[in-house]
Design brief:
The complex is a heterodimer. By secondary structure, chain A is of the alpha+beta class. Chain A has 11 helices and 14 strands. In chain A, a hairpin with a 6-residue loop joins β12 and β13. Chain B has 2 domains: about 80 residues, Beta-grasp domain (Ubiquitin-like (UB roll), Roll), CATH 3.10.20.30; about 70 residues, [2Fe-2S]-binding domain (DNA polymerase, domain 1, Orthogonal Bundle), CATH 1.10.150. Chain B has 5 helices and 5 strands. In chain B, α2 crosses α5. The chains are: A alpha+beta, B alpha+beta.
Chain lengths: ~290, ~160
């Protein structure tokens, strides 16, 4: 690896000051599973790594049925899926965090990092969008909040401005009769990059017969992970019958603008969007009815 | 050149100090500075698991940890698995089951097996294969490795 400096600040203020001083010559180190490889392979040219894991706020992991779920930006995947309360309330989130890399990666990789790395194929992002996640960003001017679906601005690019750091992700409390799911297609059983990823979240009425709310988000079919608002809207007020689900799947396919690459051509990816939306909805509906 | 960093940590139960450059990975510090060459550099990008060590109870790829990050932390490496007199049961099972050919991936597999059995002492074959998905072996075809892992679990159970 090229010569760099390493800093491990202990407060958010110290971190933002350091990031503001160094601008894009510095990069945050949380789990390091993306950034270390990028710097080592010369794909990211920086002078400094700023290890944020000694900053208390980015390590918070808490769930309060009244206030919702808070996941600090540096919390590794393993702590999320090992938390039985969170795993029970947010099984759709667990789908994603338990399939990112192998066990060794899950010991280190964070949702904050997955989001900031802004890969179009990021496994966590569709379900973070579907679950109405909000990013809290700290910077020289204070804290601002951005919905997850607006955080990524292009492949490898995100909303963060000079001096800013993603502190945490916040999610609303689990709603009654709600369910979510994440599914991806890969040609292997484990350890691969999504050809297409689909995250969905739905909420049913008290009788569990009608859909009150639905969100559908896609990965690996556009320059950024994508919220397909009209696909979710097509389910609201329906009984989630075959007609409604077909309409949602078709709208999701229409919103997908994939490229062709070594993992799959555009037509194949569009087809997969339809298949995965149907399958993910079936899982989410089953979870909502439990 | 950036100033060298002085790192203090615990490795295999021993208080350890070393110097590293800020750009060094934990794997580089272990192999080049501490001369602990049990952890192997395979892919150096987190795919193969040959450099696996256990950091504060968690299995990690030491190529994806910066050496500076281990300040104050506790590590177990392959060098700390056997005791002075005898091999660890996992090592015995790998040896007796011929679960290796060239041996480069073996330290990583043994560390991953150790982490697996600490978390789940009686894994099914499916669970073992899932847990070891981050470790690559290009010689054996995995069957003998998986058998050795399941055998290790049985041996440990008998004690």
């Amino acid at each position: 690896m090229k010569d760099i400096t390493y800093a491990a600040p202990r407060t958010l203020a110290e971190t933002t000051a350091l990031l503001n001083d160094k601008g894009d010559r510095a990069r945050i180190l949380a789990g390091g599973t993306d950034v270390i490889v990028q710097v080592r392979e010369g794909r990211r040219d920086i002078d400094a790594l700023v290890d944020i894991k000694r900053v208390p706020e980015v390590n918070e992991l808490s769930y309060d049925p009244a206030k919702g779920l808070v996941i600090g930006a540096a919390v590794p995947c393993c702590l999320i899926y090992e938390n039985v309360v969170i795993a029970k309330a947010y099984p759709g989130l667990i789908d994603a965090v338990s399939l990112i890399g192998g066990i060794q990666i899950q010991s280190r990789a964070s949702l904050g990092g997955n989001l900031c790395n802004a890969s179009p194929a990021a496994d966590a992002i569709p379900v973070l969008i579907a679950l109405e996640g909000v990013c809290d960003i700290a910077g020289p001017k204070g804290i601002r909040s951005v919905p997850v679906e607006q955080f990524c601005t292009g492949p490898g690019k995100n909303q963060l401005q000079r001096g800013e750091i993603l502190v945490r992700l916040r999610f609303p409390s689990k709603k009654a009769a709600s369910g979510a799911a994440y599914l991806r297609f890969i040609p292997r059983n484990e350890m691969d990059i999504a050809v297409v990823g689909v995250g969905v979240a739905i909420q049913l009425n008290a009788a569990k017969a009608k859909c009150l709310a639905a969100r559908i988000a896609l990965a690996a079919v556009a320059p950024t992970p994508l919220l397909v608002a009209d696909a979710g809207a097509a389910l609201v007020g329906t009984t989630l019958d075959e007609t409604a689900i077909t309409k949602a799947a078709n709208l999701a396919q229409a919103a997908a603008k994939p490229i062709s690459d070594m993992r799959g051509d555009a037509e194949y990816r569009k087809h997969l969007v339809g298949v995965l939306v149907r399958r993910a909805l079936a899982i989410a509906i089953e979870r909502a009815k439990q | 050149m950036s100033k060298k960093l002085h790192i203090t940590c615990t490795i295999n139960g021993n208080a350890t100090e070393f110097l590293c450059e800020p750009r060094n990975s934990l794997l580089e510090a272990l192999r080049d500075e501490l001369k602990m060459t049990g952890a192997k550099e395979g892919c150096n990008n987190g795919n193969c698991g040959s450099c696996n060590v256990i950091l504060d109870g968690r299995l990690v790829n030491s190529c994806l940890v910066m050496a500076a990050e281990v300040e104050g932390r506790s590590l177990t490496t392959i060098e700390g698995v056997a005791n002075k007199e005898s091999l660890h049961p996992i090592q015995k099972c790998f040896l007796e089951g011929a679960a290796l050919q060239c041996g480069i991936c073996t330290p990583g597999f043994i560390m991953a097996t150790k982490a697996l059995l600490e978390k789940n002492p009686h894994p099914t074959e499916h669970e073992a294969r899932h847990f070891l998905a981050g470790n690559l072996c290009r010689c054996t075809g995995y069957d003998k490795i998986i058998r050795a892992v399941l055998e290790s679990a049985e041996c440990a159970g008998k004690k």
